[in-house]
Target: PAP-associated domain-containing protein
Amino acid sequence: MSALDDAQKLNQLNQELKEFVRAGSDTRDREKSARRIKLCLDGLARNLGLGTGAVNMFGSFSNGFKTGTSDLDVLLAGNVHNESAISILQRFAANLESMDLGFTNITKIFQASVPLLKLTDKDSEMEVDFCVGNELGLRNSFLLNTYCKYDMRALELGRLVKEWAKKHELVGTTDGCLNSYAYMLLVVFYLQSLQPPVVPNLQLMECESYLVNDRKWGGEDMWETKFFTDVDSLPKSQNTMTIGELLPGFFHFYTRDFDWRHHAVCIRKQEPGKHVDKYSLLLLPTNEDQWYVEDPFDLKHNLAGKCSRAGKKRIMDEMANALSVLQKQGVWSKCLPAKPSSDFYMKCRISQSVTPPDILEAFEEFDLVKLHFPKSETSRMPQAFLQFGDASSRRRAHTKNETYIVDCKVQLHYSSFHGLAEALTQCPFSTYEMASYKMQRQVLEARVGKLQGTMGGPGFMPFENKVDPMRFQMPPPVDVRPPAHPFWAPPAPPARPPGLPAAAPAAPIPGRIPPPAPAVPPQVRGKNEKEEHRREIKNKPLAAARPKAPREATGQAWLYVELTDNFPKDKPKFSPEDAQNLKKLHAHFQQFSSSESKPPAEKTIYLSVPLTVDAKSGSGDPILDDETQQKLREILQGFPSPVSVT
Ligand code: UTP
Ligand code: MG
Model:
């Protein structure tokens, strides 16, 4: 290719990049909303008697690297240290919940290095992160903004890199990547490293100390945050590279030039043509594999400390790909994914006692689409992945952060398909679909209702149409395989849902992929088999008529039976006679049940009952078979206590 062609290509790329940055910079509406939100929170702070504190913006709304998807970071600064940050945020949350100040999705994120409240501004739909006393955040935003002020190319390159990283889902420490702020440090460091540099080292240029007290994680550190601010007085950079050269240069630098094994990204110390030895940064232990991106003020913070092997590889691969596209084609739009991801993930660590139905129930109201649940035997503190169909459902679901599911206080983190893919390399997962779960629950509720209908009559103890959703048979999950990018391989055969009794067999699920040919009796008994089973049961005394190998047979399901004490008002408690009757009832139910059956004192009985497919209707619905219905009827007819069964 001729020099003329190259020059033309560079020209076009420069134009494309300028246009891209310009389009993303038109955030006047968002800025107006940001000012309104700041005023509103300021007013609330005063109402709460925090008059000496001032609400300030920080993060990308003040550091120059704002994009169309940036959240608004605000903090309450000033003399608020007599009260803990969490206590102040609690008071804010209580007021925001009780008064309509135009915010929704109020989410507490208190178990973090910087505790914060996440809010959605109803009017602008802008996300707001509100924290208290994070003066370091204010200072580092000011530092980045000063670099942008010194040379516009810092701002342009920063915005381009951030958009690129976000679009490729490379942002987020919980998925083993870097956060937005870290990418901006990478940009400044690269611009400092060029010869001649595009930006100077502002921290090295300042002499006057500016100490800031930092209380992250409840500790107390004093950090030097000095940097030179009067950039208008500095001579302009000698570097004449255009943004069309700097952008591929950035990707080249980090994929080819920078030695991640020995050097640190350290804007505090960097000078053109020099390296910062990562082992010289003595505050943090490190090794060859670990990337090192030092925070310019909080020297205990390596922003790459949570980068995983897979995360680093993805970042490097995407950078190398962007470099190759820019070098060969010179077209920026080809460096970005053609269409944005349509699945929205969140993940949380769960305790051993949390089961798939627990999570499905907890997130049903937030339109959870799928749950990817780790097979619990393989991981001690496993992570579950929640999949939503849109960003707003996921955001609403985030409000459950730090609430309890069973015994587990959940910490919800945004994740991505890649986060799930990486987790799959470490442990097998099962996938549950909310739609199947709901359908299965409806079917079982309807069946119990039908049973009630067929067993009704004078003096008959009714079944109420109620199935405890926590106990009923889960739809069989689909094993999830490590993905062949971007979608995973076809689902593997259903596996036992974790959390159910060890060998509880799967009930047939209408509309789902049937399980592979079982080694045990099939779901729908053959005519002869059914006849044989009928005879077997008929000829045995009731107490011995327990279904054959109930825990092995497919077509068995667990019903959760609760004994309710709907006694007459004048007889509010269990009499010894009632207790006796309960015991008897329990003993009777043993014929259906197995060792999991609970003692009657708990008023709860688990029944392992044979379910067959409703062959008559052809619907494929599971129903109680005739024998079981008949036996239940007999037992309940003979039971004299004022105790009903639901
Ligand atoms: P954000 O993650 O919101 O990043 O952190 P951002 O720079 O505003 O970028 P976008 O546009 O929203 O994606 C907000 C600010 O919190 C401080 C930085 O000041 C950052 O700009 N911060 C964040 C830290 O000091 N350390 C961190 O590890 C992360
Ligand atoms: Mg932000």
User: Anything to note?
Assistant: The CA atoms of residues 135 and 615 lie 69 Å apart.
